[in-house]
């Protein structure tokens, strides 16, 4: 698995859009249709309306190219200076995998 840099895009009123993405492949090519979970490496992150642990950003399902992407809109205080982690827990066909992503600030 590889994780793309986390992108913060400034929006009006001091808010940000947060975009995370990861690509999961196997020896046979892209892995389609599995869920990737994205977590901030800083446990103080608490995005509004997010289920899961305090540092949960989002989860997304990989497409035909093995890419999972999600955007969190209108985030006010994002402590993502330490980057994020993308993780796949594994299933009957593929082993668990993870990767770390860095931050690209505006």
Tell me about this structure.
There is one protein chain. The protein has 106 residues and is mainly beta. The protein has a single domain (2-90, 99-104), classed as Immunoglobulin-like. 0% of the residues lie in helices and 49% in strands. The chain is built from no helices and 11 strands. It has strands spanning 2-3, 6-10, 16-23, 25-26, 29-30, 35-40, 56-61, 67-75, 84-88, 97-101, 103-104. The strands form 3 sheets. Strands 1, 2, 3, 8 and 11 form a 5-stranded mixed beta sheet that branches. Strand 2 and strand 3 form a beta hairpin. The two termini are 26 Å apart. The relative contact order is 0.33.
Which key features would you list for this structure?
106 residues, mainly beta, Immunoglobulin-like, 5-stranded mixed sheet, 4-stranded antiparallel sheet, 11 strands, elongated
Helix and strand arrangement:
Elements: E1 2-3, E2 6-10, E3 16-23, E4 25-26, E5 29-30, E6 35-40, E7 56-61, E8 67-75, E9 84-88, E10 97-101, E11 103-104
Parallel strand pairs: 2-11
Antiparallel strand pairs: 1-3, 2-3, 3-8, 4-5, 6-7, 6-9, 9-10
* Biggest sheet statistics: 5 strands, mixed
Radius of gyration: 14 Å
Helix content: under 10%
What is the N-to-C order of secondary-structure elements (H for helix, E for strand)?
EEEEEEEEEEE
Q: Using DSSP, what is the number of strands?
A: 11
Q: Give average pLDDT, whole number.
A: 83
How would you classify the helix and strand content by structural class? mainly beta
Tell me which CATH architecture applies here. Sandwich
For this structure, the quaternary state is single chain
């Amino acid at each position: 698995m590889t994780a793309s840099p986390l992108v913060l895009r400034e929006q009006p009123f001091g808010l940000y859009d947060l975009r995370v993405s990861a690509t999961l492949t196997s020896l046979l090519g892209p892995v389609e249709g599995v869920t990737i979970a994205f977590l901030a490496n800083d446990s103080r992150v608490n995005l509004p309306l997010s289920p899961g642990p305090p540092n949960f950003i989002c989860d997304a399902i990989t497409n035909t190219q093995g890419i999972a992407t999600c955007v969190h809109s209108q985030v006010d205080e994002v402590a993502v200076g330490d980057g994020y982690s993308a993780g796949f827990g594994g299933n009957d066909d593929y082993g668990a995998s993870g990767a770390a992503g860095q931050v690209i600030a505006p």
